[in-house]
Amino acid sequence: MRTFGAVCLSLLLSTIPATASDQNLREEFGRLTTAYEQHFNKKDAAGITSLFTKNYLRVTQNGIEPDNTKYYEGAFKRGADHLAITTNAIQTLSENMVIRTGEAHVTGKTEKGDPINLNIVWTTLDVRENGQWKIRMLTSVPKPQPPQAAR
Q: Are the C-beta atoms of residues 106 and 115 closer than 8 Å to each other?
């Protein structure tokens, strides 16, 4: 019976609307996301890195990237020039730590004029540093293509 009560309580709590603090958190991270997009779209690799903590960790499909600024400079050199980010979820771990997940779309053109069209899934661990949210760890990988229907 206790299990049934716990399940009912969890279902009830999951339907409670977002609180004002949840809305404030979404707005704060909305500003961080907008700043990230703006730096990317201006091809400002150092500006992107300024949104990270000093001791950040950047993980891609290639493993750990030792220099975030060089990583983005390389992407811009290969033709990436536009980023659109969608945040799917924000999970509060503590007053000063949050996990976010989402998707991103990168477009541009290679030197040969071929289109760049990448869909990416990402997760961040964000921490509050000196009153400002910063990215402590960003993991991003290409979004897998949906499976082909059996013939």
A: no
